[in-house]
Amino acid sequence: MPTRTNPRDGLTPTPVPLLVPELDVSDLAASLRFYTGVLGFRVLFDRPEERFAYLDLDGAHLMLEEAAGPGRRFRTAPLQRPFGRGVNFQIEVVDVDAVHARAVAAGCRIVVALEEKWYRRGGEELGNRQFVLADPDGYLLRPFTDLGTRAAVPRPEDARLVAPDPAYAAGYLEALREGFRDSGTVALDIDAIAADLPAHLAQLNDQTLTTTLPDGRVLPHAPYAHLWLVAGGTFVGRAGVRYALNELLFAWGGHVGYEIRPSLRRRGFGMRACALAIEHARAHGIGRLLLTCADDNAGSARIIEAHGGVLEKRAPHPLDPGVTVRRYWIG
């Protein structure tokens, strides 16, 4: 990339941008007051006879020219306010709060208020402290100060089901500390789980476990798969798929159950977990699925109904007196 001498110190070689926008403006003097006084640009050079100026702000370059000329102008249609429809120019600045304060003091039109915004790039997010304002002709500018990077927040569309895997152990233990309770977990001593994680993970899919009913009867667990919901390398929750139903599961539990860790709830992961669990059940030959939820759990009811669940009836919970269960069938 070609370089030039930095106008700030007259010494430092500075890259010349490979793309420099050139904006037609209605009043060059008014635009220069805005770009230099509010945003902090400086004029590198100008051609007064052409009503043209070339601006720089720490490496961000911009050309301005008065629309009325003289000289040639490049356009395919007459200019109409606001100019520059459909585009905004992102400009990195050292102190966006100071720029915002100058813009407010000058009475500029603020289009998007000062905010902290994070943008995903692969497995990380890039942070901007930014706002959007309009220049005198309506061109939109987005000054921002870099906030650095952070791990990307997982997205429901990226979530998938996997067998419990030590690769997600750190996130799983974090979820347990948040209050996540895995229905397949016998012991909730988090330190003990961390001390012997392989044994704990094996237990999650231990098909020899039993359940003791209030009347003393012992039921073997129905055949099932205990799966983890993960996204972007992060443990999100779990889904359980029972390939057959015993007496207890027919009354409460059904073929599919899921749980999302507290820090990632109300973000669409419950909907995703349910969809993936149903898909897993179908792949294992289960045609008609029973799903249940507490009668007052409106969120779970909405998710089940969104996947085609038809309410069969409301019934008493088999183990928790006073709790009413909704029973849904899908397929």
Along the chain, the helix and strand elements come as: EEEHEEEEHEEEEHHHEEEEHEHEHEE
Net shape: elongated
Approximate strand percentage? 35-45%
Please compute the radius of gyration using only Cα atoms. 30 Å
Strand order of the largest sheet: 3-6-5-4
Q: What's the overall average pLDDT, rounded?
A: 91
Number of helices: 8
Number of strands: 19
Largest beta sheet, briefly? 4 strands, mixed
Distance between the first and last residues' Cα: 62 Å
Task: Name the poorly predicted regions.
Answer: none
Helix content: 10-25%
Structural class: alpha+beta
Explain what you see.
The chain has 331 residues and is of the alpha+beta class. It contains eight helices and 19 strands. Strands 3-6-5-4 form a four-stranded mixed β-sheet, with helices on one face. Strand 8 and strand 9 (124-134) form a beta hairpin. The longest helix has 15 residues, at 269-283. The chain is elongated, with a radius of gyration of 30 Å.
Please specify the SSE layout and strand pairing.
Elements: E1 3-5, E2 13-15, E3 22-25, H1 28-37, E4 42-47, E5 52-57, E6 60-66, E7 88-92, H2 96-105, E8 110-121, E9 124-134, E10 140-151, E11 160-162, H3 169-178, H4 190-195, H5 197-204, E12 210-212, E13 218-220, E14 224-231, E15 234-242, H6 247-251, E16 256-260, H7 269-283, E17 289-294, H8 298-306, E18 310-316, E19 324-330
Parallel strand pairs: 3-6, 7-10
Antiparallel strand pairs: 1-2, 4-5, 5-6, 8-9, 9-10, 11-14, 12-13, 14-15, 15-16, 17-19, 18-19
